[in-house]
Amino acid sequence: xxxxxxxxxxxxxxxxxxxxxxxxxxxxxxxxxxxxxxxxxxxxxxxxxxxxxxxxxxxxxxxxxxxxxxxxxxxxxxxxxxxxxxxxxxxxxxxxxxxxxxxxxxxxxxxxxxxxxxxxxxxxxxxxxxxxxxxxxxxxxxxxxxxxxxxxxxxxxxxxxxxxxxxxxxxxxxxxxxxxxxxxxxxxxxxxxxxxxxxxxxxxxxxxxxxxxxxxxxxxxxxxxxxxxxxxxxxxxxxxxxxxxxxxxxxxxxxx
Length: 256
Prior knowledge:
The chain is α/β, with parallel strands linked by helices and 256 residues long. The protein is built from 6 helices and 6 strands. The protein is elongated and about 75 Å long. About 2% of the residues have low confidence.
């Protein structure tokens, strides 16, 4: 009969605590995103409750598991690990804990114009992913958001129908390489579920004469009226701007 080396017990005792730390860290991270207002950069508000419940549940699971391990420690019981795993013991928890640490140290970033320029800017106006059920026909033109305008245009696509209508919208600047210097695109990202499925929508803006050029990703509030311009060989609804004002990036830069 051989006695187990006491030193060999140490890894077996510590690995379950790594599970506890990883589970609890993820619970704290999810609640931290919610409490600091960063959650709206990652997920649609309709699903906030699911993240909050998950965070609380993970913390409770971590506490209960930690309490159980503490009782085992006092009885000098080494937990057995007989479950089948693709990784060596502790690796899975190590990956989870590393990901949680990165989540604490790296803040979620807002999508910007570089992501938009990976596609044809004409798709900003005619995207088929805009949900028609969110279209509100009764909204006064000057009260429509940028996303409302794109939704309206997808329902009634003839740009001349909106000529002369007042507009006041907010968004960030895109500088496509294939449009003249007298134009820029104003865009917003729309979240359907989470950041992974975010897509941009926007409209071209015709600048007044001698108007300064704005750097990409600058947030603007644009006032003016609608007109029709030919851009990229297509007739497109365009904002003829009479006023452009720099604004801070909104606390929640996405639309839904």
